Every structure is written in C-alpha cells, then in structure tokens.
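anyone seen this seq b4? input:
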Amino acid sequence: MLKKLSGLKDILWALGIIVCLGAFVIVLFVTAATRYSGEKQERALDLGSLNIVDEGTAQDIPADAAIYGQLRKMPETKDAGEEYLSTLTFLTDSIMVGLRDSVATTPEIWGSEAGNLPMNAVADWEILYSDSSRLSVSNACMVVKPKILVIAVGSDALASMDHDSFVTAYTNLIQTVRAASPETKIVCCSVLSVTGFYTSLDGLTADMTVSACEWVQEVCTNTGCYYADLGEELNSGLTLSDGYAGANGKSLNAAGLAVVLSYFRHHALS
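predicted toks r here
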C-alpha cells in the first residue's frame, strides 16, 4: 500500500514539474514577442532652450548680382570717363545706329547692315561686325564676350507688336545673350520716342513708345537686367526733343547721341 502511495506521489510531482515548465515556456515566448515602451510622453521643442549659433554660412549678395522681381535702374555715379565707355558694347536699332559712324565713339557698336533691327524678327538679326562679317547676336556674344552689353532696341517694327509678342521677343533676346556669354552684364534702354512731326509708313507713334518702355521695364524686372531710362534725358514730355532728333524725326542726331554717351559715363556699372 505504501509503495502505491509513493508511486502516485512521484507521478503527481512529475506532472507538476511538466505543467510548470510548460507555463514557463509560454510566458517566455509571450514576453519575447511583446515590447514594452514604457509610459508615452508628448514631445515638444522648447525653442527657448535652444542656443542657435551663426557659423558664418550666410553670404552677402554681390552688389552686381542679378535681382529678380524688382526693377533695377542704372545707378547715378560720378563721371566714369572715356575709358569706361570703351568697356561698353551697344546693340542698337535705327534709333542709335548713328553711333557706328561717329569717329568720336569709343564703345563697340552692333547694328545690322541696313541699320534697323525689327522686333518682330529678333531670331533673324545679323550684326555687321567691325571686320565686315555678319554674325548672329548669339555668335557675336560668343566671340566677343562683352563685359557690358547695352541693348537699345524696340522701336523698329513696334507698331506690329503687342504686349505678349514684344515681351517674348525681348526676353528671348536676353536669354540668347546669356546663353552665349553668361558673365555679360546687360543694360536695357527705354524705347525712345519720336518727335511731334514724325510721320512714317511704319506707323510708330509716341504713345506706342510709352507702352514699349513699360514692357521693357517688365522684362528687366523678370530677368534681373538693368534699366536705363534715356527718355528722361532726351524727351520733352512724351515726344523726342526736336534738338536731339535727326531729319526723320526718329533717329538721334549728333547732339542726341552725345547725350546718350554722357548718360552712360554718369551711370556706370562697376
């Protein structure tokens, strides 16, 4: 009888040990599969506790850097002299093409053989170069790499242009110059008016030049080019002063061209 009780006791102990081991294994697996992250705390950035140090990464904008979104008028300066004029290249239509024939002119003058540069055919412009060769504006800029390019165009074929076509043509011209010569500084001149007695088959009027000046300013604002308001020096009201006009009432005479050169001597870029 005692032997039977002892055997039963051993069996019960064995079953108890098996049950405990099974429970231990189950707890072990459950614990391994479940990660405890502790009590959650909301995170907030305490700006007052931050010590922000300027490590010198900020940079000043160069004085001659292109600024987009605002109109940059030519700065008034002291007389830069004839030496400064020799750094300029003029791309001009019939209004100022007389600079090309002036023996006193020191800037490089780019114009077509006929003298006109119609705004409705900018892509077809050919510049009569100093060696009598004919180059596109792109090729001329690629060869010469002008330091400062003064663009004085807009009057030729203006009567056939509206706002969108003019702005598109002028903007494409600037992009062409920059693609060929990225370091060139670009100055865009106001579109000069005509005299009160001007009559021509091209249909150009003083009112048209007023609108064109606004369009050029828009292009300068959008592209970061400088704007030279020559009308302030040459116009009388809305029309070109008779004393600065050639016989046709549109192009500049010697006195008018002298005013233009004087303007740039006193509005110089560094």
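The two ends are 120 Å apart (CA to CA). Helices lie at 2-33, 81-85, 137-144, 163-180, 206-223, 231-234, 254-265. kinda curious what u guys think
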